[in-house]
Amino acid sequence: MEVVLYLLILPLIASLLSLAGERWGRALTPAFAFATAVLSALMLYEGETVSTPNLYADWYSLVIAGIVSWVYFFASLASLYYTEGLERPFFDLRYYWSFLSLFALTMSFTALVSNLGWMWIGLEATTVVSALLILTEGEKRNVEGAWRYMIVASAGLGVAFLSVILAYVSAGTLDVRHLTFTPKEALLVSTLALIGFGTKVGLFPMHGWLPDAHGSAPSPVSAMLSGTLLPTALLVYYRILSASPWDSPAKITLLFGVLTLLVASFLMASQRFVKRLLAYSSMDMMGVATIGLGLAYYHPALLKLVFLLLAVHAFSKGALFITAGSVMRAYGTHEIGGIRGLMNSNPMSGLSLVLSALSVTGSPPFGTFIAELGIIGVALSRSYWWALFIGTGLLLSFLALNWHSAKMAFGEGEKRKVPTGEGIIVLAMTLTALGISLYAWYLIVTGGLVV
Amino acid sequence: MISVTTEVLNILGVTVLLTAFLLLTESYMHSLINLIAFQSLLIGGILAIIGWETASPELIVLAGITIAFRALLIPWILQRDIRKERIWYNREVKTTHHAIVIGLILAVTAYFLYVPIYRATGDWKGVIPFLLLFLSMLVIVGRRNALAQIIGYISEENSLLYFAAVMTSMPIILEFGILLDMIAFVLLAVILGAEKRYGPVEVEELVG
Questions:
Q1: For residue B135, what are the domain limits?
Q2: Is residue A34's pLDDT more than 90?
Q3: How far is A192 from chain B (nearest CA, A)?
Q4: Which residues of B touch A170 (CB under 8 A)?
Q5: How confident is the model over A391-434, as pLDDT tens digits?
Q6: CA-based, 20 to 30 A from A312: which of A120, A323, A436, B73?
Q7: Phi-psi region of B199 (alpha: psi -120 to 50; beta: other; left: phi over 0)
Q8: How high is the ipTM of this complex?
Q9: Closest Cα in chain B to A208
Q10: Is A150–B172 a contact, with Cβ atoms under 8 angstroms apart?
């Protein structure tokens, strides 16, 4: 049996065992998640690839499966603290644990299958599971967030379904290894896929669900939604785009990416609520990654940098969401203005907040910086205008997020304690992002990664 | 020469389109539910005929599932739910003014949007489900009521399976259908769960 199947089997077992009771979930989920995560890291390290009739995993799929597994692990640790504070959950908490594992499973499944139809099914399944997770707290705003998410995401995935059908009509197969389109078909299929799967990525103008869902989900789930679900959907779009090696799909991708980046960065500055700010920041980063996918047509070496960006973003944004959750619980407010002086009262959470905010806005030495530099470079070689728009978006989002995070981290404020364990979890996530970044620099210096 | 089957399929297709327009304008909850049950029944019929013609057991099973779930079970659950509260039954649910006009404009636009698909595939057969998809999305967008949005979702699901069935003999269509139905059930469960928690919710508030 293929080793890669264990990336799916382990979360499945964890999900089933959690149904036995909440205690089982608490005890087993982090352990199983850790095993999954280590396995995925080993596969990436060994440089394995898989190609069987039903599974297809190249480096890109494994990066996504890797970040899914690791963020799942960290989210399960953070959930230990999160579930303690719940008073009146919507359903018994054993379902929370079960759905958490199931969520990781559906995402890894989407990343690893070889068939575009199954990828679509996997993504739709992520919608169902994550919408149920959003309901956990059972307040009215959770129901609203989950409702809007399901309605918008399934409408978007309806359009994606059209693109899958048309891909089958044009190519005669759904296997991503054998998809080939003529220019006319490529433009049609990839545009529909961009609208459809782009809804799930959070691209403008189909992003309406994103701030609501991220804002009302439990923080560990927000971490998974933002850090791993959006990149998984982007991977599916990448599979279609890579079967359409023509100029026009690349340009449309670029256009959607730039619009998303600009809109998100403008909206970020005016946010009042912590998690909505982070949600717009995720949208902003997905815009950058989409631009990267579009530009990779002109400069294929950019592709690896885009996935580096997704990996670093997953850990940093995960850390940000989990920090936000614990701090919001400690301070009893959802607003940015209500939180001050985090660095003084909770040094670990504060440090993680500042570093992760720098990381997701592309500051050196983080890997996101390398990727954004690469993207601006390629954009400059195409047209000054593209580079100008991208640069404006990046600068605005950098200022907005770091301004807000500095306001929360520094200064004098009430001393409210966040559990030490949660501080350690988020700091570990930030340091993982830093570690990946430093490894990327090492690879660039030694010639292992070409920019 | 057009065969009898194609003729029957076309008539059923046009009737489906008519139900979509009615869904846009109908303002009573219980008739909305009856309409979607009727539409699902028609879609089940279409799937069964295509399945019979192309000798594909998958499609016939899918037709059975369509009729069982979307024409019988889900409408039954919805009807039972609105009957529980007197304010729901026979209640008017708001629909956008001029919804029919917007629907017509949208249908014509969708017709032109189909042209690129025709150019790529050389096939006009998908145009009715394509129009239906747009009209269903209009039902979802135009209605502020959560139950009416579920009905829009079911109509969208119908259009997708219809599109898949007429355009090509897709391999995993049955799995698609089952998953889409599961989502419909989750949507229902969310609303019914919320009702249990907050009493008979004014679901209109749920979309903010």
A1: 4-206
A2: yes
A3: 10
A4: 120-121
A5: 999 999 999 999 999 988 888 877 788 888 888 999 999 999 99
A6: A120
A7: left
A8: 0.87
A9: B208
A10: no
